Amino acid sequence: MILIADSGSTKTTWMDVASGNKIVTEGLNPYFTTDEAFLAACAEVGDRFSIFTQLSVYFYGAGCGSKSQCQRVARLLSQAFVTDNVFVETDLLAACRATWGIQSGLVGVLGTGSSTCYYDNGQVAAQAPSLGYILGDHGSANHVGRILLTDYLAGDMPKEISAMFHDTYPMEKDEWIESIYRRPNANRFLASLAPFAVSHLKEDYCRDVVYHALDNWYGYQISSLIRDTHCSRLCVVGGFAEAIRPVLSVFCSDKSVALSTVVADPIEGLRQYHIKNF
Predict the structure, then answer these.
(1) CB 21 within 8 Å of CB 51
(2) Helix 173-181 to helix 141-154 angle, to the nearest 10 degrees?
(3) Strand order in 2-7's β-sheet?
(4) How many CB atoms lie within 10 A of CB 181?
(5) Coil, strand or helix at 118
(6) DSSP state of 88
(7) pTM for this one?
(8) How far apart are CA 74 and CA 204, in angstroms?
(9) How far apart, in whole angstroms, are the C-alpha atoms of residue 25 and residue 163?
(10) Parallel, antiparallel, or unpaired: how do β-strands 114-120 and 86-90 relate?
């Protein structure tokens, strides 16, 4: 049995490759997830897929680019599923395999966070620096949420938009600060504000916020990859990417980037890759 998992900071989708059956648990980014929470999510999966015969687990996760975190995740998976056939890779490689398969091209992940690479010969051949939600994650949902909240608290948001924002999120300044600096999973919290921009993309301000975040994404993550690889074919994966597709399409056209496809959830494409190649 082959079990694959595509894990971001918000949700993890697990799928049995043979049957296509799947289950969704919470996001298991190892930087934000305790061992106990990770094992509890695995237990949910064990309850759903009760028979593990010669089990192999392929876990593709956000936060798994670090060797130490990769080893930790592998240890937890081995413990949870009682198997040594555990393979831990990044969610970026999952996006690559789900979109380009055995072809080559640029791949971006735009979800709670963001990452970008050039994929060639079945592997991530070049990757933009991934610096997390404080220093990086440009173009992502938490980046857009961060822009919105900064403008709102600084009084730089247009008055009518600010009023709508307050109606949607009726919190005082100290509550905002508490949520960002004192509570866990600040990246998820900031990302939870991005749907406001998505819901109001007809407003110039919200469209400009998303476009500005994408422009930062291009500047920090994409432009150097295009320069170094001479490739401008791009596939983008992530629920947030799908939600902002109208702005993303215009943006890519403005930057002369060939947007090949936008995939909200890569799990089915990843399943097909495993069927053909494993």
Answers:
(1) no
(2) 150
(3) 22-26, 11-16, 2-7, 56-61, 86-90
(4) 8
(5) strand
(6) E
(7) 0.86
(8) 46
(9) 35
(10) unpaired
